[in-house]
Amino acid sequence: MRLRSLSGAPVAAAIIAVAFSAGAQGQDQKPLDAADVADGMRLYQQKGNCQTCHGWAGDGRKTDSQMPDGANLRDTKLNRAGLVLTIKCGRLNSQMPAFDKFAYSDGRCYGKTQADLKSYPTRMPDPPATLQQREIDLITDFLIAKIVGKGPMNHAKCVEFWGSETDVCKEFPK
Predict the structure, then answer these.
(1) Mean pLDDT of the chain
(2) Fewer Cβ within 10 Å of end Cβ, the chain: N or C?
(3) How many structural domains does the chain have?
(4) Per-residue pLDDT at 7 exceeds 60
């Protein structure tokens, strides 16, 4: 069966079902390397500029009031595959950009092409930079290690997040 012969809506629904199916379970299937987590954090903060919408702690407290409100990633139900898919393909009809340079060039994302995106009322913005698959995997490793399923930020979590006491942790009571 060819993907192009399928309607976009059922394909998108199937992809989303897989992305949510395992919830937060099974996210630590392989031990995460500390260097990979650090590289993922750097990519989250710098190249992907994710904190602009999602906040440095991934809690949706954005750092730029001009940017759209990002999801609270600390409470997300997305599993690893769902996180990768969302970073690669963005979210249809939302302000979450696709970081895969070719996301909508050939139907690889939700079975849609660039022409299909024009039918949505909310335009998906261009990302600050495109990411290679390895970079998407590193950001996902960082999210799983430091953000997803970790609950609301507090002082102890802030110190653990940064690796030491920092000025930003002072906003949280000890």
Answers:
(1) 85
(2) N
(3) 1
(4) no
Helix (H, G, I), strand (E, B) or coil at 112: strand
109 three-state secondary structure: strand
Place of tokens 């299909």: 116
Please report which confidence band the pLDDT of residue 105 belongs to, taking 50, 70 and 90 as the band edges.
very high
Range of the domain at 32: 3-171
d(CA 106, CA 173): 50
* Rounded distance between C-alpha atoms, residue 167 and residue 47, angstroms: 23
**Band of pLDDT at residue 34, cut at 50, 70 and 90:** very high
Q: How many CB atoms lie within 10 A of CB 166?
A: 11
Of 88, 75, 97, 66, the C-alpha closest to 15 is 88
- The DSSP code for 110 is T
Q: Which residues contact 119 (CB under 8 A, 6 or more apart)?
A: none
